[in-house]
């Protein structure tokens, strides 16, 4: 197919002087337009005074136009799917709970689930949930087949890079407009650079939740990590909320919230004290809690951190995400969805969903985006845990199969944020040390085989590396969407709102811009 030949010829050939000139233009554009990171913590004064450009790809990456459109289209179905999972308490109890689910062996998931269960028993007052989602994909082209779209994971909490990806797309469009990349490739045409308005889209989601809460004077709370370096991805959402919707944002860490957050015992209205804010009488009411934190166990160092999380959950504010929606984004849920009939139960069961049931073709489209997965604790049927083996310590079928197929697998625990997975040849030694009871917390996933041949110039700030390094690369596409749902009297609202490309050196197993493994990129649509 045409895109395969584009890839092997990518990037087009330019002279060193041209690459240098483009690199200067790219980094200068990044610095001019907020495509930035704060410098590493040891170089940060308490009041920010400098920034470095984000890691970047010099060229946009070729991507088949039809697959890109397809990925955007199926996001609508994914939005609905995850909203239904988050509302299916029995399903989440079974898969993530502490009785027989992952929460039994994974302390972090267990704590979140237990807190959520208690709050449910006591009665939650806010039926609405807001999800700002990102579904991540790689192209799959084993043994030179034409590529298809395969999902890496679905993010339901702290889906990042909306703002920076929009700016990266704009940077590539600018480089093309300004230099036409020295006419190096006929693929670099204006209409091959798709629009990316992710910030406006994500902000519309937050503003819609705010409106549903129905108090114009309320603020949106951004829950953030201490020492966050990725603020230039977060602040633009804040600026747009104020500019377009006159909605104010307050940013706080869990530690700050432990001192500042209170609930009205009657109404469960969440208020945050903020003595510095002149517009208020010492505290503000919160309409929506947007978590850009709270997804990793290290963020919950003490019981007080869980206490704060549960206090926010108990409140009347709309949570993005609710604990239910966070749990729905677990890798274990992703695995369970691949089992026969599970996806269909969420989407196509007409007795359950009536007119809101999806057509078979729409459901099949999602299924086709799945790779094979199984739980490490399972027996021969690949579904039921092999309790005998887990107790005796013998190897159950799921583990034996993972050993056998190790070169084509990745193992994943219930974690987010990068750096947690075990790949290929590291799998056998890892399985040797994994306590049998912990097998339940892990899934095995077949590796996606991206098309080979594409290279790019990767630009990182700092030290001697302030230059473009050519490397063979793999690009991961993310599609953003949002959904507001949960109130039985009103229909859910959902949208697909934009995209992201992260590109990594081929030899690296992981992606992850924040963790230093990859760079921000954008798509160049190619036909065929
Ligand atoms: P996290 O929640 O830590 O981001 P991911 O599931 O996204 O975990 O995995 C991290 C990275 O590992 C991905 O960005 C991708 O580069 C790589 N990866 C994950 N699953 C697969 C897979 N099935 N095939 C190929 N690469 C994968
Ligand atoms: Mg990921």
TrEMBL record:
Belongs to the eukaryotic GSH synthase family. Binds 1 Mg(2+) ion per subunit. NCBIfam families: glut_syn_euk. Homodimer. Its EC number is 6.3.2.3. Keywords: ATP-binding, Glutathione biosynthesis, Ligase, Magnesium, Metal-binding, Nucleotide-binding. Mg(2+) binds at residues 153, 155, 416. PANTHER family: GLUTATHIONE SYNTHETASE. It comes from the Eukaryota. Residues 219-328 form the Glutathione synthase substrate-binding domain. It holds the Pfam family GSH_synthase. This is Glutathione synthetase. SUPFAM superfamilies: Glutathione synthetase ATP-binding domain-like, PreATP-grasp domain. Substrate binds at residues 134, 157-160, 228-230, 234, 292-295, 502, 513-514. One of its GO terms (molecular function) is glutathione binding. Its cofactor is Mg(2+). InterPro entries: Glutathione_synthase, Glutathione_synthase_a-hlx, Glutathione_synthase_C_euk, Glutathione_synthase_N_euk, GSH-S_sub-bd_sf, GSH_synth_subst-bd, PreATP-grasp_dom_sf. It catalyses: gamma-L-glutamyl-L-cysteine + glycine + ATP = glutathione + ADP + phosphate + H(+). ATP binds at residues 153, 331, 412-421, 423, 445-448, 476, 504, 510. Pathway: Sulfur metabolism; glutathione biosynthesis; glutathione from L-cysteine and L-glutamate: step 2/2. GO terms for cellular component: cytosol.
């Amino acid at each position: 197919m045409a895109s395969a030949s584009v890839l092997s010829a990518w990037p087009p050939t330019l002279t060193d002087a041209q690459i240098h000139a483009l690199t200067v233009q790219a980094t200068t554009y990044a610095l001019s337009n907020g495509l930035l990171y704060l410098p590493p913590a040891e170089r940060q004064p308490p009041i920010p005074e400098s920034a470095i450009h984000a890691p970047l790809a010099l060229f946009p990456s070729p991507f088949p136009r039809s697959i890109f459109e397809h990925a955007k289209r199926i996001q609508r179905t994914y939005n609905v799917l995850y909203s239904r999972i988050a509302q299916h308490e029995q399903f989440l109890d079974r898969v993530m709970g502490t009785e027989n689910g992952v929460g039994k062996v994974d302390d972090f998931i267990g704590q979140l689930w237990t807190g959520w269960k208690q709050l449910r028993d006591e009665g939650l007052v806010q039926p609405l949930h807001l999800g700002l989602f990102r579904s991540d994909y790689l192209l799959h082209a084993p043994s030179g087949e034409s590529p298809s779209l395969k999902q890496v994971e679905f993010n339901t909490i702290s889906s990042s890079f909306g703002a920076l990806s929009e700016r990266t797309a704009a940077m590539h469009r600018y480089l093309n407009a300004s230099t036409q990349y020295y006419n190096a490739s006929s693929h670099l045409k204006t209409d091959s650079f798709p629009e990316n308005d992710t910030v406006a889209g994500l902000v519309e989601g937050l503003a819609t939740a705010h409106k549903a809460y129905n108090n114009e004077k309320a603020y949106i709370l951004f829950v953030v990590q201490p020492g966050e370096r990725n603020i230039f991805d977060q602040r633009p959402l804040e600026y747009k909320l104020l500019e377009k919707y006159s909605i104010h944002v307050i940013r706080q860490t869990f530690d700050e919230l432990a001192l500042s957050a209170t609930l009205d015992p009657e109404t469960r209205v969440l208020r945050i004290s903020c003595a510095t804010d002149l517009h208020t009488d010492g505290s503000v009411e919160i309409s929506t809690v947007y978590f850009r934190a709270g997804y990793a166990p290290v963020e919950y160092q003490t019981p007080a951190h869980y206490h704060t999380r549960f206090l926010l959950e108990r409140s009347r504010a709309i949570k993005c995400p609710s604990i239910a929606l966070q749990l729905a984004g677990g890798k274990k849920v992703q695995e369970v969805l691949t089992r026969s009939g599970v996806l269909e139960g969420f989407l196509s069961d007409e007795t359950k969903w009536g007119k809101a049931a999806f057509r078979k073709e729409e459901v099949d489209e999602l299924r086709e985006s799945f790779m094979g997965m199984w739980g490490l604790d399972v027996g021969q049927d690949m579904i039921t845990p092999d309790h005998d083996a887990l107790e005796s310590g013998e190897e159950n079928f799921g583990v034996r199969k993972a050993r056998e197929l190790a070169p084509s697998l990745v193992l994943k625990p219930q974690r987010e944020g990068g750096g947690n997975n075990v790949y290929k040849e590291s799998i056998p030694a890892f399985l040797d040390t994994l306590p049998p009871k912990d097998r339940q917390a892990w899934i095995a996933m077949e590796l996606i085989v991206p098309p080979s041949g594409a290279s790019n110039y990767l630009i990182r700030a700092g030290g001697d590396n302030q230059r473009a390094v050519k490397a063979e690369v793999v690009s991961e596409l993310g599609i953003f969407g949002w959904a507001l749902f949960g109130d039985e009297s009103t229909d859910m609202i959902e949208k697909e709102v934009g995209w992201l490309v992260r590109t990594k050196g081929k030899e690296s197993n992981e992606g992850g811009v924040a963790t230093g493994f990859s760079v921000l990129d954008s798509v160049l649509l190619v036909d065929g």
